[in-house]
Structure formats: structure tokens, C-alpha cells
Amino acid sequence: MKPPAFQYQRAETADHAVALLAEFGEEARILAGGQSLVPLLNLRLANPSYLVDISKTPDLLAFEEVGAGLLVRASMRYCEAESNPIVRSRFPIIRDAIGMVGHDHIRNRGTVVGSLAHNDPAAEFPAVALVCEVTFKLRSTRGVREISAAEFIGSAYTTAAAADELVESVFFPARPSGTGEAIVEYARRPGDFAIAGIACRLGSNGQGLITECRLASFSCGPSAGRHKAAEASAIGQIGENSVFGEVGDLVADELSDIEAQPSPYRHRLVRYLVTESLRRAWHDAEPTN
């Protein structure tokens, strides 16, 4: 299939990109990697009059360590992040999430920030953003604003970014010492969208007790989302499989409540994924256990 007709604009700088967005308004869409947008165009599910290409915009390509965290700019591709030694050593949840995204040709073109801006309910990175509590930097001709992941991520395919705003970058703070992170999903085949997935972070006091718990599900509802009641139930508990299973039951029950026809299989799958993600995160937080 061929996409509908559109006018192509290449942004030379981030300021140029936001000027074009201000000029064209809701008739424009940003093109970074195009791995989500191009299929939507071909299926006529998106019909913008203008595409603003930022794939080679110099000030949106780089990423860097800032303080104790990682600043990921809008045009940084998955493959660049996946192979970066800083990401691989200090931000393993980013590395692991990228490994679950599609196939090589998708990771060679697609972008981390593009996935977040698209906010597909089945995508890994919105859940990772919630667990890591990242900060989004949005730029427009009206100025720059920074908002949290919880504020940015809306329902399916929607975010807090206005039509004239560019998601310029995302900041991943470094995880504190004594914490571990994990992301687990199940798909029918490698590269398929997940049937369900869980991202998590656990904190340990060094003596076997859970001091922090963050859980976010994806491909389980209209958008990635945290599970605050289940998180709270884990605090102060011993980090062991029985506790992880109880937390898994709470998440599975919560997700079953939003489904019109709860599936016993899906309930068991979510429980397993929560339990497994917590087990891996706990091992990451307390590697001697």
C-alpha cells in the first residue's frame, strides 16, 4: 500500500523543527525512525499534510551522560543505544527493553523517544519510563517544559505533548545503589508484540527486606500503567518468591478488573511475569542472594 500524499520537510535544527510544527499545527507529524508512523500512513490510519523529518537533525542525534543519568535525544536509534557501553553497563533495563523491540531492521531505524511519543499500549518503553520515572523535555516556539512520565503518558497512542511540541529528549536518572530492575514479556514469536509484559524496580535494605517497589505493565490495557496497591504491598516484606507471587496476584486481579471477559490464562500469565520480573530485579539488587 502507498501512503496518502504529504509534503516533506527536513528540519535542520531542533528550533527549525518546532518552527515547522508551529506553522503547520495539527496537520504535521514528526518523522524520526518511521517504524510506527510509516505503517500507519500506508494503512491510511494517519493522514498528515506535512512530515517533519528529524532523523538527521544534528542537535537531536546525540545522547550523553548528564550528572548521574542518561539524556536520550529524539533521533537516537535503538541500535545506537543498545551497543553503547554506558547503556549496557549502567542502564541494563534500557538494553533489555531494546532487545525485545521487533527485529534488527526495526531497531536499526526506530528511536527510543519515538516509541515513547507514539505510546503504543504494547510497547516496552512507556512501561520502562514509568518504572525509571524519566523526565520528558518538550520544546515549542512557546518555550520548553519538562514533565514526568506519569504526566506524559496518556491512554493509547496519546500523550501530554501538544500538536506544536517536539519531544526533544528524555532523561533517565541513574538507579540508586541497592536497587535492581528487570523487564519481562511474553510474545508468541520473537519480534511480535507482547501478549503481556512487566517492567519493575526493587530496592533492598541489604538485609533481605524490600524498601522500594515499582511495577508497570504493558500490552495489558489501554496504556502502560503503574500498580500502586501491589507496589505498596511489597514494601517491608522479605524478598522471596512467595511474596513476589502475592504481588503478582494483586497485579493480575487489578488487570482482570479492566477486561470485559477476564481470561484465566491471562491472569496466570500476568502473575508469572510479575513474579519473574520481581525475582530478576531482586537478584539484581541483592546479587549474593
Number of distinct helices: 12
Order of helices and strands: EHEHEEEHHHHHHEEHEEEEEHHH
Overall structural class, as computed from helix and strand content, comes to alpha+beta
- Classify the oligomer: single chain
Level-1 CATH class name of the largest domain? Alpha Beta
What is the annotated CATH architecture of the largest domain? 2-Layer Sandwich
Beta-strand fraction estimate: 15-25%
Please, how many domains? 3
The CATH topology assignment of the largest domain is Uridine Diphospho-n-acetylenolpyruvylglucosamine Reductase, domain 3
**Tell me, what's the shape?**
globular
User: Regions with pLDDT < 50 over 5+ consecutive residues?
Assistant: none
Q: In terms of topology, how is this protein built?
A:
Layout: E1 7-10, H1 14-24, E2 28-31, H2 37-42, E3 50-53, E4 63-66, E5 69-73, H3 78-82, H4 85-90, H5 92-99, H6 104-109, H7 112-118, H8 125-132, E6 135-140, E7 143-148, H9 149-152, E8 166-172, E9 179-186, E10 196-204, E11 210-218, E12 225-226, H10 228-234, H11 241-257, H12 264-285
Helix pairs in contact: 10-11, 11-12
Q: Care to describe what's here?
A:
By secondary structure, the protein is α+β, with helices and mostly antiparallel strands. The chain is 37% helix and 24% strand. It folds into three domains: 7-53, Uridine Diphospho-n-acetylenolpyruvylglucosamine Reductase, domain 2, CATH 3.30.43; 58-172, Uridine Diphospho-n-acetylenolpyruvylglucosamine Reductase, domain 3; 179-285, CO dehydrogenase flavoprotein, C-terminal domain (Enolase-like, domain 1). It contains twelve helices and twelve strands. The strands form three sheets. It has a five-stranded antiparallel sheet with strand order 4-5-8-6-7. Strands 9-10-11-12 form a four-stranded antiparallel sheet, with helices on both faces. It is globular and about 55 Å long.
